[in-house]
Amino acid sequence: MLQLNDVGEGESVGYGRRFIADKPTKTATIPIGYADGIRRAYGNGKGEVSINGKRAKIIGSICMDMMMIDVTDTGAVVGDEVIIFGEEIPITELALKWETIPYEVMTSISQRVKRIFFKE
């Protein structure tokens, strides 16, 4: 996670003011976006990520290189790990929300995302 911000009631986040806070909200900016393979349609409260074992809604529009999430109830601090999919958010769940199959989700992740291969 790159940055934390406090957003007051009535303030907006993201391009086109797509998210307007209905209460004081703590937001985080994370360095992944549609250029990395995250669908833009997954923003604006449709998608979630996991941080500190808790789910956090994606708020506002997903940008090219980043997205914003609501971390109000997560206890998040700058530098915390954010999970896009994994044990906490199965890739099958992500595929259902994207209206596709897990294989397409995996192949849509761009070459910008570092790969680490494990061999047993």
TrEMBL record:
<dbReference type="InterPro" id="IPR011079">
    <property type="entry name" value="Ala_racemase_C"/>
</dbReference>
<dbReference type="Pfam" id="PF00842">
    <property type="entry name" value="Ala_racemase_C"/>
</dbReference>
<dbReference type="InterPro" id="IPR009006">
    <property type="entry name" value="Ala_racemase/Decarboxylase_C"/>
</dbReference>
<dbReference type="InterPro" id="IPR000821">
    <property type="entry name" value="Ala_racemase"/>
</dbReference>
<keyword id="KW-0663">Pyridoxal phosphate</keyword>
<protein>
    <submittedName>
        <fullName>Alanine racemase C-terminal domain-containing protein</fullName>
    </submittedName>
</protein>
<feature type="domain" description="Alanine racemase C-terminal">
    <location>
        <begin position="2"/>
        <end position="118"/>
    </location>
</feature>
<keyword id="KW-0413">Isomerase</keyword>
